[in-house]
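Annex B. Sample input.
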Amino acid sequence: METVRVLAMAGAQVTMAVRNVETGNTVANEIMGTTGSRNIKVAALDLASFDSINAFVSQWSGKLDILINNAGVMALPEVERTEQGIEMQFMTNYLGHFALAQGLHPYLKAAGNARVVVVSSSGHLLSPVIFDDLNYNFRVYNPWDAYGQSKSACILFAVAASQRWIKDGITVNALNPGAIQTNLQKHVGGKLRSAPELHKTPAQGAATSLLLAASPLLEGHGGHYFENCNEAPTVTVRPANYEGVAAYAKDRNNADRLWELSHELTAQYIK
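Annex B, continued. Sample output.
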């Protein structure tokens, strides 16, 4: 909501892609009422459904300057899978966004200088992508490991997409918004686990997304991971304060492997 609000205040035409269109319309009307903008649209999109992704892409027209991939689900208590057998956190947080970005690529390219912003998390420090068992067909399911895997995948997408799409004028970066009290915590008691001094308001949490979406400082720079409105250092051991980006999430070999695997997983479902 805060990301949409600030973009609307800046004069952007914003499409809110949401699962619940009724709620989306309520939010859009609230934002338009407080900002004076009349350029907010609402469209249905469920990132756990390839059919929904296809429908959204098929209805798009015109260039697309900024794509912010920020839908998320966290720490589902029991393993859930899509009808294709894909673990739900991996699908919602990463693979659905991958499919969406692929479908919208022609419109991003048409903009000539587009940006893709991928919302990851410090939770990526909990797990790399386990390529041999993405969907917990062999491993014992752990809600936080699954969340961490999906968020590591988000960063690897930024690395891989930047390499491949820079020729099209598209830059891609990932970020950690920080610890923000939202409905994301609904599966973990509705509370943040981090120290209170690390907590952010929704407006503070949206700041890094907006930096990557619009700042001239990021012109032509992609494949990076930001937190607190700065590029994060690469770490090889999980820090106690959960700051920094894991080396495995920036590794180009991992990024290339995930890119190819993602194409395999989505090819038969994406139109």
